[in-house]
Design brief:
single chain; 1072 residues; alpha+beta; Methylamine Dehydrogenase, Chain H; 4-stranded antiparallel beta sheet; 54 strands; 33% helix; WD repeat; cytoplasm
């Protein structure tokens, strides 16, 4: 017997030998059904609770509704012949939302070990997986982001023998293998996830095992203190990306659709996402530390791996590698205008099989050119796919599925070396000087590999790995093997191996140090020797200055709306802890001997500060020399000039950022003088603290703010910087430095104000362009006669359009107030939406946006003419000038609301029809005859025929059929179908309409014909104009118009009468 609940706990269903019983939560039976001649093995509710999916003993999948009525059968894509029985079935209920829209959530597994993951019961292209296991059980985690598959699998041991073992495999909804876990025992009979997805329970034999899982969150750490992470809420399909400064607790969020990857390096973060315009493109965006996009690029292939360095981005699919050199604003020596003018964009792509010979390279090519080469990509696709990549400023490492490791030099992308490994890594990381890599496979085994020979390290090195280099040709059968002697192969696999590893981080300032997470323990290694483990379950985000920084992402994801206290933990290495103990117990001399044995700049810096505190200048000077701190040496020279030890201690306290100590000593003046000598600006602020004077120290060169204890906590106080800039004179050298800092964090207005103040208009415009503030850029260009802005705008817009990024081009034109161009693009987007069969509501919204842009264009044109201060002749000349400027392909400006009206009436007619108001629906549908240039005539007259038939207006229906049969675009088959349907209808019903609908006139109470369109136009004008008096004016004019003899006699609302009404209404409104 198998049973289960719907996600809302309203119903229970169970199966007993083909009998299905559905009951309520209180135990009352709702209905029962017996499926004859069928053995039911598995049953699952659909996420919406409307369907039941049954798995039978023969492997069939039968879908029933929640009333027990058979609906359909599901296809078996794993075994079309149906020779394999069903092993397991699990349908994620969606109770905690979906990580993205339309993601697979139905998992079906068969006894042959094959698995298909479907989006729903109608999915014809599921993800197909061969698990190579038997006795399979499957289970989705609580968010539907990971599928656990357990069973028995043949595993080869170290002696080369194959033996069955209990294994749990973890897969993504898209069919990507994530990790595997080997479990002791003979059989796994059941699996279950914990609610938060951080643990999984396994029933093995007579035991229950609990295993901790480490979710693969989309996150990264950069800019020393910034954590960027993504999460999603059940009610949203977008991912929320948070840029959290762990030092200041500032958070900046962005919503991103179809988020794929997050990675970072130095001061920049790369976010890879899918395009939201329905295309198959992916979007690469480089962000700064506060979540402002620096540069964006679209690519035409599916990215699977990403790596970023200081100025380089590498994106890889299964067979293609894209090298993109972005221009970071902080380091770029060329202006933004020059960057846009450049035609040779710093990007290139190559197929993984193109550069295969050591010493070879290539200029690369465009992605589209690669996709059009069928010989490599279509006829003979690569079977040796890319499994992971890593990069630095000088090296790119690529690992392939066969275990081959490629080493490329950057930026030339030349293949420097090629190695063959005896295992299959899924993750790779480079150390700080790109001489060693860490390799982690899917089972959690970590190994180290040297990219060059190291003198004196033979004791720790295995023999050089034998490597074979294959020179690929277009015909795989012609592959030639080149002898190992002709290769450049200095790589060596080290005698180092760790198990159950799930996170690795190299120290950024020491190539011999790295930290790993092994289960729930943190290990720090130096020269492959481990220190004592520390209990920790956080993710390693940084390792520098002999200090490991970890972050508890699990706690953050549990409460994404607030800042989690103590989420970031700093863990000092053993050497750092021992040095502090020696300094406190044994003194500076013993500390110097200790650091001599394990030298590191951070250790020598601590020794120097300890020596300064006891005024031991000789040892302090020695320590500063060892850590190559020239500023510290100069500081010692300045200290020797003081005769008073108190002043020396005050200077030392200020140097060590111990300003409270300096104040207690009573040498605040000495502290201020010291800071002034070092070029530090002082800003005096007041606080509620009674500790006395507090100084907010803004150190421009170091990009930091040092704050006194108990004062207001700041890291970058940009408001104070802005006040300082206002008070400085125009020729002060600090202004440009302050402006550059505003640019770095995206404060465009503040930076532009400073650039204008010092007379650097080109820099101001350049800043607006880089930060995408085109409206400000155009205004500056007009005020200061900067003529290059139009050409730059046009080139950038052309670049966006060439990348098919029309929506970004629309936003660009809107910000620059080029309304007619943005309107034209919106009309094109509306036509594209019609061709791609998007929803009618979406199409209507695009037409409305386009019309609003036209209204903005007219408003701006009127404002530029100064219509409130000109004569009638001048106004007429301005209108004629506007008409002449918009002739040609700008005819859409004359009838901007035409498309919006068409889809408004189209939606309204169907809404009225389905609400039962058929007469109004027919009147609305008949108005669509004026919009055949927008909506397909076949659609219009089909709708009219349908509504008129149900409204029993058979004459109108007959005319619609005549129009449908006469359409030129109709095929012969369509014509015959129309004729056949018309014959069936009009042999039963005469083509006669009943009398027309009449309404009472609001003025004379006489009966007149329908005035529906008049009311629609009135309402539209009232909504658009937003005038408080519009209703009153419209009512007055309406009464005057209805009482006129022409309208009362004919009862018809013509286009001419509409023009009369609109003109008089405009006159009334204008005269106010």
């Amino acid at each position: 017997m198998e049973q289960g609940w719907t996600k809302n706990l309203h119903h229970l269903r169970r199966r007993v030998s083909g009998a299905v019983i559905l009951g309520s939560v209180d135990g009352n039976r709702i209905w029962g059904k017996e499926v004859k001649n069928t053995q039911l093995l598995h049953v699952q509710w659909s996420p919406n609770g409307k369907f039941l999916l049954f798995g039978t003993g023969t492997g069939e999948l039968q879908l029933f509704d929640n009333q027990g009525v058979f609906v359909s059968k599901l296809s078996n894509y794993c075994d079309p012949h149906g020779n394999s029985k069903l092993a397991a079935l699990d349908w994620y209920d969606g109770s905690r939302g979906y990580i993205e829209q339309n993601i697979p959530c139905l998992a079906i597994c068969y006894e042959n070990g094959k698995l298909q993951i479907m989006r729903d019961d109608k999915d014809t292209k599921p993800a197909l997986i061969d698990t190579n296991m038997r006795s399979i059980k499957i289970k989705w985690n609580a968010t539907g982001s990971v599928l656990a598959v357990s069973g028995l699998q043949l595993i080869r041991n170290s002696q080369g023998e194959e033996k069955e073992a209990c294994v749990v495999q973890f897969w993504s909804p898209m069919g990507q293998f994530l990790r595997s876990l080997k479990v002791p025992g003979t059989c796994i009979t059941s699996i279950s996830w914990e609610y938060d997805g951080l643990r999984i329970a396994l029933a093995v034999d007579s035991f229950i095992y609990f295993a901790n899982t480490r979710p693969d969150y989309k996150w990264s750490f950069f800019a020393h203190d910034v954590v960027v992470y993504a999460y999603h809420k059940p009610e949203m399909f977008e991912s929320t990306v948070v840029f959290w400064n762990t030092k200041t607790n500032d958070r900046h969020t962005r919503n991103i659709k179809k988020l794929l990857m997050i990675t970072s390096a130095n001061d920049h973060c790369l976010i890879v996402s899918g395009s939201d315009d329905g295309s198959q493109q992916s979007v690469l965006t480089v962000y700064n530390a506060i979540g402002i996009p620096i540069e964006t690029k679209c690519i035409d292939f599916e990215p699977k791996f990403a790596s970023v360095s200081k100025t380089h981005v590498f994106i890889a699919s299964a067979d293609i590698i894209l090298h993109w050199q972005f221009k970071a604003l902080a380091i770029s020596k060329i202006s933004a205008l020059d960057a846009i003018r450049r035609k040779d964009i710093c990007e290139r792509a190559f197929h993984i099989d193109d550069i295969h010979i050591v010493g070879s390279g290539g200029n690369g090519t465009a992605i589209q050119d690669l996709r059009e080469r069928p010989i490599i990509l279509q006829v003979i696709p690569t079977k040796d796919c890319i499994t992971c990549i890593a990069s630095s400023d000088s090296v790119l490492m690529v690992v392939r599925q066969s275990g081959v490791l490629y080493q490329y030099s950057v930026p030339s992308v030349t293949l420097d070396n090629k190695y063959t490994l005896n295992f299959h890594p899924v993750s790779i990381a480079l150390n700080s000087n790109s001489t060693r890599v860490s390799l982690l496979d899917a089972t959690g085994i970590l190994k180290l590999f040297d990219l060059e020979k190291r003198a004196g390290a033979a004791g720790n090195i295995i023999d050089t790995v034998s490597a074979t280099m294959v020179a690929s040709t277009q015909d795989a059968s012609n592959a030639a093997t080149i002898s190992a002697g002709s290769m450049i192969n200095n790589g060596q696999l080290l005698e180092f191996e760790r198990k159950d590893v799930w996170d690795v981080r190299w120290a950024s300032d020491d190539p011999e140090q790295f930290a790993i997470m092994e289960k729930t323990r943190l290990y720090v290694f130096r020269n492959m020797d481990p220190e004592s483990p520390i209990n920790c379950s956080g993710y390693i985000c940084d390792f520098r200055d002999m200090q490991v920084k970890t972050i508890s992402l699990d706690d953050i994801m549990k409460d994404t709306d607030s800042i989690v206290k103590d989420a970031v933990v700093h863990i000092e290495t053993k050497a750092l802890r021992e040095l502090r103990t020696i300094l406190s117990q044994n003194g500076v001399l013993n500390a110097v001997q200790f650091v001599d044995d394990r030298p590191h700049p951070r250790l020598w810096k601590i020794v120097a500060e300890a020596a300064l505190e006891i005024l031991d200048f000789a040892q302090a000077q020695k320590a500063f020399i060892r850590c190559q701190d020239y500023q510290g040496l100069q500081f010692i020279k300045s200290l020797k000039k003081f005769d008073d030890p108190a002043k020396q201690k005050a200077e030392i306290a200020a140097y060590c950022n111990q300003f409270e100590t300096a104040e207690k000593i009573g040498a605040v003046d000495a502290t201020i003088n010291f800071l002034k000598k070092h070029g530090i600006i002082l800003v005096i602020i007041t606080t509620t603290s009674s500790d006395g004077l507090k100084l907010l120290l803004i150190i421009l060169k170091e990009k930091t703010i040092v704050v006194w204890q108990n004062a207001i906590t700041f890291w970058r106080d940009y408001a104070s910087l802005e006040k300082i800039a206002i008070g400085l004179s125009e020729n002060n050298a600090l202004l440009k430095s302050i402006a550059n800092k505003f640019v770095l964090v995206g404060l465009c207005d503040q930076a532009v104000a400073i650039y204008v103040k010092i007379g650097e208009i080109a820099s101001a415009v350049n800043t607006c362009v880089m930060l995408n503030q085109w409206n400000t850029a155009v205004q500056l260009a007009e005020i200061h006669n900067f003529k290059e802005i139009d050409s730059v705008l046009a080139k950038y817009a052309a670049y966006l359009l060439s990348q098919n990024r029309k929506w970004e081009a629309v936003e660009l034109y809107r910000k620059a107030n080029y309304c007619q161009k943005s309107a034209r693009l919106l009309f094109e987007l509306a036509k594209d939406a019609i061709e791609s069969e998007q929803t009618v509501m979406q199409i209507k919204k695009i037409y409305v946006l386009a019309a609003l842009e036209v209204e903005r264009y007219h408003s701006i044109s009127k404002a530029n003419r100064g219509m409130h201060h000109e004569t009638a002749t001048a106004a007429l000349d301005g209108l004629l000038a506007e008409d002449s400027a918009t002739m040609g392909d700008h005819k859409f400006l004359d009838n901007a609301w035409h498309g919006a009206e068409a889809y408004h009436f189209y939606i309204l007619a169907q809404r009225q029809f389905y609400n039962g108001d058929r007469e109004s629906a027919l009147v609305t549908a008949l108005h669509l005859r004026e919009y055949e240039d927008i909506i397909d005539a076949k659609v219009i007259f089909s709708l009219i025929a349908l509504i008129s038939f149900h409204s029993k207006r058979y004459n109108t229906c007959s005319k619609a059929f005549v129009k449908l049969e006469a359409l030129e675009a109709s095929s012969l088959e369509a014509e015959k179908s129309f004729e056949s349907l018309a014959l069936d209808i009009f042999t039963k019903y005469k083509p006669i309409d009943p009398k027309g609908i009449t309404v009472s006139c609001t003025n004379c109470m006489n009966k007149i014909k329908d005035r529906y369109k008049l009311e629609v136009i009135l309402l539209a004008l009232i909504v658009i104009l937003h005038f408080q008096r519009a209703l009153c004016l419209a009512d007055q004019l309406l009464n005057r118009f209805i009482s006129c003899a022409t309208y009362a006699s004919t009862g018809q609302w013509s286009m001419r009468s509409a023009e009369w009404f609109a003109a008089h209404f405009a006159i009334l409104v204008f005269n106010g």
